[in-house]
Amino acid sequence: MSPEPHVPADDAGHEETPNTPGQAAPAPAAHGPAADGPLDPEDVGSTYLLEPGDLTHLLRQLVVSPGAREDLVRSPQTGAPLASVPVSTPEDVARAVAEARAAQRAWARRSVTDRARVLLALGDIVLAEQSDVLDLVQLENGKSRASAFEEVADLAQVTRHYGVRGASYLRDRRVPGMLPVLTSARVHRRPVGVVGVIAPWNYPLTLALSDALPALLAGNAVVLKPDPQTTLTALWAAEALVRAGLPRGVLRVVAGGGEVGAALVDAVDHVVFTGSTATGRKVAAQAAGRLVGATLELGGKNPLYVAADADVDAAALGAVRACFANTGQLCMSIERLYVHTDVAEEFTAAFVARVRELRVGAGLDYSHDVGSLTTSAQLERVTEHVDDALRRGARVLVGGVHRTDLGPLFHEPTVLTDVPDDALCAREETFGPLVTLRVVRDDDEAVRLMNDTDYGLNASIWTTSARRGRELAARVEAGSVGINDGYASAWGSVAAPMGGFKQSGLGRRHGRESIEAMTEPQTIVVQRLVGHGASLDELFKLPDGKGQALLTTGLRALRALRMP
User: Fold this and answer.
1) pTM, 2 dp
2) Are 437 and 417 in contact (CB under 8 A)?
3) Distance in angstroms (rounded) separating the CA atoms of residues 398 and 392
4) CB neighbour list of residue 274: distance below 8 Å, 6 or more residues apart
5) Active site: which residues (predicted)?
6) 3-state DSSP call for residue 279?
7) What is the pLDDT of residues 444-500, one digit of tens each?
8) Which entry of 297, 412, 429, 516 is annotated as an active-site residue?
């Protein structure tokens, strides 16, 4: 899930804008006091939505220097100021990493069971205090409350999974030694040290912690750099972890843009980045220069196919959520619909009708289905993609309007058809409430078009035959394929790896794979019967090739017995 049009975690709009690691998201469109000017007490838009005094306990989690410069953060829903957030410097990043490295040693010495208790306690806190954090997520990001709740549900899943099952991922693993009986071998996993997490603005709670939690369970410390637009949510998460029992210093938070992100990549032992492919390449190159690992979830241009035998009503309902949840600012969001000709008319009518029913608006409750876009850059990208497609002959089936009556960054959920292949929205990630619809003749054409992209993050297939769905999924070039689901079941199956093919990233989050990425495997072998004539050294010491002959006999026996 990410922004710059997948918007790079740190970029401003998850995709375009080739930003440097940790680049700040563009501020929401001007609405109220100027971002760099004093607040006018006579202007209703000058009133802070959050009382500065109420944020003191959160801001204490930041690693910043005295007298640090502050950034004014505004709510996307209205443009009104939220808070002034101090900005870290590269020197602050170095200090945060040093503090985390010092705290990591004692944390790693704790048992996995003790570390797991912290994760389980955090899950309880998130569920119990969801109202507070949902408000914060909505105010910073602009999404609807239903979309914000996905983040609470996700953390409940991730904390439970790693809290219960994580120990099994870290347990020493016995493997066959070189010589049966004589050689024993175990693989032990050790934490890498300090993991840097560069998180985007589109899922400020989920992506602040979904990689940090397995890193912590494995015995690492974490330094988190959230996007400047959503720093407060990350600070809430950090404070909640302390209340859950995490020792202070094991997770540190730094704030800022590209300079801060670059300093973090230069200091940690593994980096996790969610954002655009353009910025992801820069992060990967920077990490490779230091020979440290990198986990990257990047852009996507995700397809959904409605097969001839699909349940049309169910497919229409699922497609609406797959396309427009989180206002389309979701790395796994569906942006291309392919519909079999046999059901095209029926599906299109049902889908468009359901899109028209979506309630667009702002509110810290469940009264709206689709919220605001988060940044002015994303709004500009959506309108550019719509306008470009229309100039090239596309037709609007529903939507297509920037809703200035609702707020500065609202855009109606939009469905386009007859979109030519050279249109921007046909090839590039939009990362907003826009989807294209195309009719196909058969499964083969659908699969060909689904794979006709530089990306390969997520895909969806709707069919009443699970067997047919699996066979089609095996032909699709994507890291996850949901059969009769758009994205939620694939993301929510946290025991399974999540990541992308092609230009959609490197490595995987979730499951065993996340733990393995943030630990170093250490092989420990024990050679038995040393000094009793059975060691390799003693065999190789035998004269006239006798030792080699014995080994040859033994190797042939192992092959005959099909020993692994």
Assistant:
1) 0.91
2) yes
3) 17
4) 1, 2, 6, 8, 9, 198, 199, 200, 207, 296, 297, 298, 331
5) 297
6) helix
7) 999 999 999 999 999 999 999 999 999 999 999 999 999 999 999 999 999 999 999
8) 297
